[in-house]
Specification:
The protein is α+β, with helices and mostly antiparallel strands. The chain is built from 13 helices and 8 strands. The strands form 2 sheets. It has a 4-stranded mixed β-sheet with strand order 1-8-2-3. The protein has a 4-stranded antiparallel β-sheet with strand order 5-4-7-6. The radius of gyration is 28 Å and the shape is elongated.
Length: about 350
């Protein structure tokens, strides 16, 4: 799916807190239909929101949580609190979509024919997907529900981006300027050089005596750097590794290292001492790191836009949002996992093979 399509039909980027949820009670599970498209799970004003939509959105987020659980080797949905967060994210997405669609006309937002076609393509790709059948058996993929859901999401996303673009940007590139600094830590605490340690482990030799560096050692390294030698080469020779960082020039950093590095310009080198750590030899390789500066600017602008959206969204009129807790509870996340890592790996391997055939 293209990035444009994902922007149109994917979940909204900003998930709002559920300040206007009201629970409804009195429903017994035995009284509920197995057809989720007939079960009211929530209401927004006079609109009924059915369980098939809630289930689809919930399972989509559940899949993401389980995917990252598998990736990092930890269960992100292993307790009631984390599961409640998952439910809240899904329901807040549904609420926000309704609110933004309700105000679409206020921002002159409607879908173009091209965007409607993108929605149709997205629905078709899900309905005809034959690689994730187990997932869709749980999440569901009724075509009528998907058309309504993705159309609403597409409209809501356009409103969302329209509001963000209305932000007044005060960030300047100058205040985001970042330099590039390479530094080497010479620890005052005796530590074995990491390169030597790795080599000793491979060769089965005993580790050499650990090294504790002094200010004199740091000044010797500084003198070599000022004479034109590479700090990276010197570190390698000592069995150590340099680190690289970018520091905002026009904003005072919070760390001692950042304070020292942020004022440096290209070609400058210095030694600083940080208590209980050791001596740092720093050398500035660029007064302005263009890529890092642009990234910092874009991040700051993005924050301003998100802040503007949150402020505008808070002021939008909203209908009452009621959630039927007993119905939502039918969607037992902990007992119905949706991410099948073996199937996912099979799909990825098939895609790789397909791509290699094309390139050859």
């Amino acid at each position: 799916m293209s990035s444009m399509k994902r922007a149109l039909v994917g979940s909204l980027a900003a998930v709002m807190m559920l300040g206007s949820l009201t629970a409804c009670g009195g429903v017994k599970k035995s009284e509920l239909s197995d057809d989720y498209s007939k079960v009211v799970a929530a209401t927004y004003g006079n609109e009924n929101i059915y369980l098939d939509e809630v289930n689809f959105i919930l399972r989509d987020r559940q899949y993401m949580y389980e995917y990252y659980s598998a990736m990092y080797g930890m269960n992100l949905l292993n307790n009631e609190e984390s599961v409640n967060v998952l439910y809240q994210e899904a329901l807040s997405s549904i609420l926000q979509t309704r609110v933004l669609c309700q105000h679409a006309a206020d921002y002159n937002v409607e879908l173009t024919e091209e965007e409607k076609a993108l929605v149709a393509d997205a629905v078709k790709s899900i309905v005809e997907n034959d690689t994730m059948n187990n997932y869709y058996e749980i999440a569901g993929r009724d075509e009528t529900m998907l058309n309504e859901l993705m159309t609403k999401n597409a409209i809501a996303n356009k409103v969302y981006f329209t509001i963000k673009e209305g932000a007044e940007i005060t960030t300047t590139m100058d205040e985001c300027t970042r330099n590039a600094v390479t530094y080497l830590l010479l620890s005052e605490v005796a530590e074995e050089a990491e390169n030597e340690e790795a080599e000793n482990e491979e060769e089965g030799e005993e580790a050499e005596e650990a090294v504790a560096y002094t200010e004199e050692d740091a000044n010797k390294v500084l003198a070599r750097v000022e004479a034109g030698e590479s700090l990276d080469d010197i570190a390698d020779e000592m069995g150590l590794s340099t680190q690289k960082g970018n520091y905002t020039v026009n904003v005072a950093p919070e760390t001692e290292l950042g304070v020292a590095a942020s004022t440096m310009t290209e070609g400058q080198s210095k030694v600083i001492y940080i208590k209980d750590t050791g001596w740092y030899v720093l050398t500035c390789t660029a007064s302005v790191d263009q890529e890092s500066t642009e990234n910092a600017y874009e991040a700051s602008v993005s924050t301003e836009k998100e802040t503007h959206f949150s402020s505008v969204y808070e002021g939008l009129s909203k209908d009452k949002f009621n959630v039927v807790d007993e119905v939502i509870a039918m969607l037992n996340v902990m007992d119905t996992p949706v991410f099948n890592i073996e199937a996912s790996e099979d799909v990825e391997s098939e895609e790789v093979e397909s791509e290699s055939e094309v390139t050859e």
